[in-house]
Amino acid sequence: MIGRVKKWLGIEGVKLELVLPETLEGTDRVLQGRVRLQSLNPQVVRRIRIILIERYSRGRGKEKLVDEYELGQVQLDHRLEVLPGEVRELPFELPFELVRSGIDDFGKRNLLFSGLAKAAKAINAVGSEFRVEAEAEVEGVALNPFDKKAIAIKG
């Protein structure tokens, strides 16, 4: 009985881990990484969904605004059996497109405008944080394993 509940909740089941580079050039437009799967019990993974998200914040205190943008998504439809003690890795490529703000477009015009754009961003406390989230759909489990990792994107 306890074994069934543990399996249904995903306890001692598939553990998912993202293996990513620490930084990425924004001009690359493709994130390459791996999904590492391991389990204490035999389990079957139906698919894995991977998403790159930008958290864009601006303002300070009560005036602070935060938006999140999905920059890219990929779904790996590999039916994969993960056996106890076995480590499986799936490589993936996640194409993405950066979202540019009006200040970014203004700063790209020339070198002088670039400095003004940086100053405007500093004054308004504008910043972006990027993260990659992955979730695996596992047969017979109510709570799917997931992982999320921060990544730095330059440019």
From TrEMBL:
The record's Pfam families line, in alphabetical order, gives:
Spo0M (PF07070)
Q: Which domain of life is it from?
A: Bacteria
Annotated protein name in UniProt: Arrestin-like N-terminal domain-containing protein
| Organism ancestry | Bacteria, Pseudomonadati, Bacteroidota, Saprospiria, Saprospirales
